[in-house]
Amino acid sequence: MVVVRYERNDPSLEPYPYDPEKAKQLLAEAGVPEGLEIKIQTTTGRYLREKEISQAVAGYLNDVGFNASVEVLDYSILNEYRNAGKEGGLAELNYIGLGGYFTGVGELAWVQYGMVGNTWQNEEFDALAEEAKRTMDNEQRQELLNQCQQLAHEECPWIFLFRQPTYYAIGERLQNWQYRADEYMYFWDCDVAE
């Protein structure tokens, strides 16, 4: 069996520390009232354990003073809410799994203004992301993507929970199969051993 893993992250970035006391302090400084109701909308069965992850996030939010709840919706309904915005039923938070074409550029596009209702705007981020799209040199592109990731990490336009790696397992009989970063699986160039 062969297992392949693909990731493209800036290795210098550290995860945000878990610090509920600091979170309470920052919320108080921002004037957020204790017990503020907040809803997380999620689906079930579309992403890996999204309902349970949303419940865990609600628990963390409750620990720092929110009154958080989880609403489980069919994906088609949540998608309609996202398209309609706040007036159309979209809650304060919603769980979404993001993907891209796994070059680093695709994933970062999700935090840009206008993507899935995002309102974060950062001109420096946008300029770096555009330059990364046009850059043919892999090392230079990676440096630009790292700078984008650092900006998004500093400003935190979304609550980034985790990055799910992609794993593939194949049997020894499948030969000449190549993993693709875009997750498409093409088998017409493969052989199956007897």
Q: How many domains, in number, for the residues?
A: 2
Order of adjacent strands in the largest pleated sheet? 3-2-4
Based on CA atoms alone, the radius of gyration comes out at 20 Å
Structural class: alpha/beta
Report the count of strand segments: 7
User: What's the average pLDDT?
Assistant: 83
What percent of residues adopt helix (DSSP H or I)?
25-40%
Number of helices: 6
Order of helices and strands: EHEHEHEHHHEEE
Low-confidence segments: 1-7
Strand content: 5-15%
Q: What distance lies between the first and last C-alpha atoms, to the nearest angstrom?
A: 16 Å
Which shape, going by the Cα principal axes? globular
The biggest sheet amounts to: 3 strands, parallel
Task: Kindly describe this structure.
- The chain is an alpha/beta fold.
- The chain folds into 2 domains: 1-14 and 99-194, no CATH class; 33-97.
- 35% of the residues lie in helices and 14% in strands.
- It is built from 6 helices and 7 strands, in the order βαβαβαβαααβββ.
- It has helices at 20-29, 50-63, 75-84, 105-108, 123-134, 138-155; strands at residues 2-6, 37-42, 67-72, 93-94, 166-170, 174-175, 191-192.
- The strands form 3 sheets. It has a 3-stranded parallel beta sheet with strand order 3-2-4, with helices on one face. Strands 1-5 form a two-stranded antiparallel sheet. A two-stranded antiparallel sheet has the order 6-7.
- Strand 2, helix 2 and strand 3 form a beta-alpha-beta unit.
- Helix 5 packs antiparallel against helix 6.
- The longest helix has 18 residues, at 138-155.
- The chain starts with a strand and ends with a strand.
